[in-house]
Amino acid sequence: MDLYFSLQNYPVSNPLPYDDTGWTMSLMRNVTVKKVADKSLFDQPMTMVTKDVIVPGVIQGTGDVLVVENTTDNVLATFRFKNVDTKMEAAEEDFDLDGHHLRAGAFVIRQWE
After folding, report:
1. 91: how many CB neighbours lie within 10 A of its CB?
2. Cα(33)–Cα(73) distance, rounded to whole angstroms?
3. Contacts of 11 (CB under 8 A, 6+ apart)
4. Contact between 23 and 29 (Cβ < 8 Å)
5. Coil, strand or helix at 97
6. What is the DSSP secondary-structure string of 23-88?
7. Contacts 24+ apart (CB under 8 A), 10-15
8. What is the pLDDT of residues 52-69, one digit of tens each?
9. What φ, ψ does residue 78 adopt, rounded to 5°?
10. What is residue 111's predicted lDDT score, i.e. its pLDDT?
């Protein structure tokens, strides 16, 4: 489990760690991983997920500029290619907007309707 959920550290003497660095779940999926030591969790009733779990997106605020947050999720590439005719820019640096900290790579769509 540590391979997937912990940050991977490699000694300087091993500059080529192969692909294990791609399995760091917190970085790969932009999530916070917290260790749960209470094993009684596994005794709780559970239901198998039988179809894709879809989390709806939201649009907050108003205006003629849409910013799509860089969540490091691969669906951002899907979004970009599905909207090939939409002119958009990618932020080159982190920035703050209306109390939200946004990372470099966020899509900025001007004159959005």
Report:
1. 16
2. 16
3. none
4. no
5. strand
6. G-HHHHHT--------GGGGGS------S---PPP---S-SSEEEE-----THHHHHHHHTTTS--
7. none
8. 988 777 888 888 899 999
9. -60, -45
10. 79
